[in-house]
Amino acid sequence: MMSAIANAMPSGLEQTHAEEYGQYPDASVQPIARASDGLPDGSVQEDCGAVVAASPAMQRVLEQVRQIANLDIPVLLLGESGTGKEVVARLIHNTSCRAHRTFMKVNCAALPSELLESELFGHEAGAFTGATRAKPGKFEICQKGTILLDEIAEMPFAPQAKFLHVLQDGEFSRLGSPFPKRVDVRILAATNVNIQQAIAARQFREDLYYRVSAYSIYIPPLRARREDIQPLVEHFMRSWAKRLGRPQLPVSPAFLAACMRHPWPGNVRELENSMARYVICGNEVQVVSQLHRTSGDGGRPLREEPGEACALPGDLKSRLRSLKKEAEREAIVHALDMTRGSRKDAARMLNISVRALQYKMLDCEITHSQAAPHFEP
């Protein structure tokens, strides 16, 4: 089955759908979606994590998940660290026909080459020093299920050829064994690294990239989708209060204003940690002071002038317009970077026409130098 999938997969950037928008949850709480239920509109809660769809940006990501959840092809999740790539991967699995099977995550950057091969493919007794007994790998354990290969662009070069063989032929051999094993596993991959640069540096195989990126979803950073911040604050307040057995604390307009101003370099993960810190210490001034220290904004006080705090909802209309433009600009620059400056390929990745891309480049003031390749081919 895996070989049939591999042979049917489109190749090249023309078939890659690296979208411009990002991820995460809505304030409402719904049961986790399964393959039999389909993907509900709005938010989806999963365990202690959630996908917030308060923004049109996140609705776009959910629509992409609806499109590919039951298509048994590899999916590549792109985005900065902390944006929620694993959460989206779990959502894809839980809304697919494999939802009742195993989901496993493997961090490709955490292990050296030999240990990663053993982790993925297993080994026989005596395969290497210390291998006193045979051990199945993640592919065997995850038969009929889904594997998320996190930080795939940082996978050591040696195991990449063996992994490519799994994608192409649906079979592998344990370390120390001459006998191939058949496997039927769906592959999801994630990275916060520019894969094209890794390919140019000969750190990642180009043929493997085309195999794992049959469909790509780009998850923008939280600073480019600030309309998700307030529902995320509310969600994490509820989830951490429940997890720690504490009462929910009020979120003042000034606290929310501080969250809206913060650049969130750690993205959703940083926001969740800040809300957990607030639930634990119960002091919003202390939490915001920590944000000021990390953002370097000069320690702006939490307590705003009354007019400024009250003006926040009204200000959001103009702010969201500028944030939408900022998100579009970042998505276009990213697509041009991923396609080595090719406007035709970038337009295909963004699912818009070349003419529309050119108009948006003018509107976002993206210069010719910014659209040029960032590295040598």
Overall pLDDT: 77
Report on the biggest sheet: 5 strands, parallel
Strand content: 5-15%
Rg, alpha carbons: 22 Å
CATH architecture of the largest domain: 3-Layer(aba) Sandwich
- SSE order: HEEHEHEHEEHEHEEEHHEHHHHHHHHH
Number of strands: 11
Under CATH, the topology of the largest domain can be stated as Rossmann fold
In DSSP terms (H or I, runs of 4 or more residues), the helix count works out at: 17
Shape category: globular
Q: What is the share of helical residues?
A: 40-55%
SS class: alpha/beta
- CATH homology superfamily name of the largest domain: P-loop containing nucleotide triphosphate hydrolases
Number of domains: 3
Strand order of the largest sheet: 4-7-10-3-11
Low-confidence runs of at least 5 consecutive residues: 1-49, 298-314, 372-377
Distance between the termini: 35 Å
Give the C-level CATH assignment of the largest domain.
Answer: Alpha Beta
Keywords:
single chain; 377 residues; alpha/beta; Rossmann fold; Helicase, Ruva Protein, domain 3; Arc Repressor Mutant, subunit A; five-stranded parallel beta sheet; two-stranded antiparallel ribbon; 17 helices; 11 strands; 46% helix; globular; disordered N terminus; disordered C terminus
Give an account of the 3D structure.
With 377 residues, this protein is of the alpha/beta class. The chain folds into three domains: 2-220, 3-Layer(aba) Sandwich (Rossmann fold), CATH 3.40.50; 224-304, Helicase, Ruva Protein, domain 3 (Orthogonal Bundle), CATH 1.10.8.60; 312-371, Arc Repressor Mutant, subunit A, CATH 1.10.10. Helices cover 46% and strands 11% of the residues. The strands form four sheets. Strands 4-7-10-3-11 form a five-stranded parallel β-sheet, covered by helices on one side. A two-stranded antiparallel ribbon has the order 1-2. A two-stranded antiparallel sheet has the order 5-6. A hairpin with a 6-residue loop joins strand 8 (171-173) and strand 9 (180-182). The two termini are 35 Å apart.
